[in-house]
Design a protein that fits this description.
The chain contains eleven helices and eight strands. The protein has about 270 residues and is α/β, with parallel strands linked by helices. An eight-stranded parallel β-barrel has the order 1-2-3-4-5-6-7-8, surrounded by seven helices. The longest helix is centred in the last third of the chain and has 24 residues, at about 250-270. The structure holds glyceraldehyde-3-phosphate (G3H) and zinc ion. This is Fructose-bisphosphate aldolase class II.
């Protein structure tokens, strides 16, 4: 069933938030969540919207209908949005939350722009996540080596009114190996200091044990994207390698979708361990 994000992002447990690019991603994520018996968040990024010729409606409708038909609670989240015009489309398409990404801005500009997104979302009953940039480098908050300063995070949450905060604690986006080392001690300090749920981005590159430990240390929303694409593409490649004459996309997309579902189930079990 389609469920508000705010009901799933509850301190004390880790909820998986998986990136949706195509309808098969949504189907696989929900199948994996049903197999694990866990709630899940379907998130569509601004980049995924751009892939769909900059149209939110078709992919949002697909994800929303897959969510509605699910036997476990499923939330719909709009992810890494830099364009306020896209934030403003969220309510009409059934999203329960938005991540406004001002991480490329300096602190003051990030606060000012994030506040605008917060005001819009709260006026429409949506939950807003944001991210701190300029924490330790100009490559963004999730470049390797960048960390979030707890005092700065507290000030940012106070000044913006965000409902959740993405923090830089050692993960990094789009890793295809699972060897990121998280700063669990920093997660604990952020959890103590910051009064809203903490979000881990770039979780595909984090080993299983570190993910479980991160949830125990205080991370609440765990964002996973690349790992699904690794699973999907690997299965498609295997199928086409073994069946070079195949032309029906259903023949090779189906094993890709099954591989994504198995990956989602695995991650959700790791988060709940
Ligand atoms: O917001 C989405 C995530 O941070 C996904 O990152 O593709 O590295 O798992 P990932
Ligand atoms: Zn991210």
């Amino acid at each position: 069933m389609l469920t508000p994000t705010a009901e799933l992002v509850v301190p004390g447990r880790g909820v998986g938030a998986f990136n949706v690019i195509t309808v098969e991603h949504a189907e696989a994520i929900v199948a994996g969540a049903e197999a694990a018996g866990q709630p899940v968040i379907l998130q569509i990024s601004q980049n995924a919207v751009l892939f769909h010729h900059n149209r939110l409606a078709p992919i949002a409708a697909a994800a929303r209908e897959v969510a509605r038909a699910s036997s476990v609670p499923v939330a719909l989240h709009l992810d890494h949005v830099e364009d306020m015009a896209l934030v403003e489309q969220a309510p009409e398409h059934g999203f329960g939350s938005v991540m406004y990404d001002g991480s490329k801005l300096d602190f003051a500009a990030n606060v000012a722009e994030t506040r605008k997104a917060v005001e819009f979302c709260h006026a429409h009953g949506l939950w807003l996540e944001s991210e701190l940039g300029e924490v330790g480098g100009k490559d963004g908050a999730h470049a390797p080596g960048v960390r979030t300063d707890p005092a700065e995070a507290v000030a940012f949450v106070r000044d913006t009114g965000v409902d959740a905060l993405a923090v830089a604690v050692g993960s990094s986006h789009a890793m295809t190996s699972r060897d990121a080392a998280l700063d669990l001690e920093l997660i604990g300090r952020l959890r103590e200091a910051v009064p809203v749920p903490l979000v881990l981005h770039g979780s595909s590159g984090v080993p299983d044990g570190e993910l479980t430990a991160a949830v125990r240390a205080g991370m609440t929303k765990i964002n996973i994207g690349t790992a699904l694409n690794i699973a999907f593409t690997g299965a498609v490649r295997d199928y086409l390698g073994a069946n070079p004459k195949a032309v029906d996309p259903r023949k090779y997309v189906a094993p890709g979708r099954d591989a994504m579902a198995a990956t989602v189930e695995h991650f959700l079990r790791v988060l709940a361990a």
